Structure formats: C-alpha cells, structure tokens
Amino acid sequence: MSNPLLSTLQTCDSAPEWYIRRQWGPLGILYCRHTCHYETGADQLYFKDEHTLGLFLSPRPFRFSHQQENHTAAGFYNKGDLLITPADTPLLTHADGNVEIVQIRLKDDFVRTVAEEALAQNSDCLELLPTFQTRAPQIESIIMMLLTELQQEWCGNQLYIDSLANVLAINLLRNHTTTQPQIPLYQGGLPQRQLLKVLDYIDAHLSQEVTLGDLAQQVDMSQFHFGRLFKQSLGISPYQYLLEQRIEKAKQLLKQTDQPIVNIALDCGFSSHSHLNRKFRQLTGMTPKAYRTN
Description:
Number of strands: 9
CATH superfamily of the largest domain: Jelly Rolls
Distance between the termini: 55 Å
CATH class of the largest domain: Mainly Beta
Low-confidence stretches: 1-14
Strand content: 15-25%
Oligomer: single chain
Radius of gyration: 22 Å
Number of domains: 3
Structural class: alpha+beta
Number of helices: 10
Shape: globular
Helix content: 40-55%
CATH architecture of the largest domain: Sandwich
C-alpha cells in the first residue's frame, strides 16, 4: 500500500477492512482497522512536519513492536494504549493481530505557535518526547471527541475542532516535552468591551464558518487563552455559545417565515437539514418541524 496515512498498519498483507480520514486545518485524523501478520515484515512511519499520535482501540490485545531512533520496545498493546511519535522521527513497526487505531497528526508549526502564544515559550527549544504504550486519559478523551466528529455525516464544526486541537497541543506541551511548561493563569474572564466585540462578531457571522482563530483575533489573544476566558465570562465554550445562537436564529426563522427547513439550516450555519435536525433536538427536545407546527 502506498497511502502514507495508514502508518503502522502498513505492515499488513491486505487492504484495510475499512478506514475514514479527514484533514481539519493543522489536524489530520485517520480511523481504520486491519488484520496484520508479524511475518510480513516491518514498515516505517515518517512525517517530517507532523507529530503523530496513535490511540489503539482493538478490543483484543495484539502483538506490537516498534523502534524509534535508539529505542526498541515490544509487547502486547491493549485498547487505550497510546503511541506518540515526534515530527521528523522515523518509526519502524511490526504488528500481529486485529489492529484498530485512531491516528492523529498535528502540524509542528501549529504546536510551536501554541507554545509561543499560550505558554510564552521559545519554540526553538521545543522538543516533543517519543512515548511508547502509555496511558493518557485526557489525550484519549480528546481523540475520542475528534473521532465522534469524524463519524458524523457532516464535516464537523471548525470552531469545535479548533478548540480540541488547541487543548491537545497544550496537553502535549505540558506532559510530553522536555521542558513541560506551566500554563499562565488568567482570572475574571474577558473585559466587557472585548466580550461584546466577540459576541457582535458571532451574531454577524452565524451563517458562515467561524473558527477559534477568528474569535481570538478580535481581541488579539491566543486561541487557547481566549477559549478559557470566554468560558469564564459566560460559563459555556465559544462553540456552545455559537451553537445556541444558531438554534435561536433557526427558531425565529421557523416561526416568522415559511422558508423550507433546509434553507433555514444553511442560513443558520448548519451543513444540512439533518445537521440542524440533530442539534435542534439536542438543545430543545424536539425537531425543527415539530417546533414550527407547535
């Protein structure tokens, strides 16, 4: 197989049983399953400008060995085990068994930008540590949330993805680098003037894609710190606030116009009728059609 995204699963002697993949800005995700055989030989994973995280989800343990620079390890990998490979680092792998994996690729320049903006760290000194068969509950939770977005019929909300990517980068910087910097704490939320500016921007762009970078730029702040201060101000994340405002706009259009629901969905920033239907039901307990009728 020539597809570089299949990473450690290239040791297999057959095509993947299934796989899905997507690229969201600086973050790429691949989810797939293979039946692998140890005797087929090793394969090499290498991404020059991307850090790679592999979260194994196989329900049954399988044999796995890997060599990264001068470190070699072998054993049984279990569901929830994590493998972290820094950018520009070759990884040699063998696998034997049914391998189900979520692979996250995070661009190195994005991680360095987060280090400089959110942690005031000199990115030239940044060095991510290779990590083998570890457990990291926070990273696992983030990856599973990204996997949930990947499996949706729509493309995923970019503001939500941006937030997860920033939190993932911060977690890697805090726990899996040589320096392990501390996060500066800011209390009290956004100043009222800045908060109103952000809320006005959201109101004016409900029908468009809104990213975390767009919002943070309004107040000249790093994406990570903006997300934290926004939540301190309103008690909910920027993504949740945006979603609630889109639903409120949809409610108005459902009651005040006779537009088709699919048009209302697009006018409110949803990718499809079913996307609106799902989110509307989550927040209101009823479908858009039922809301309009009642």
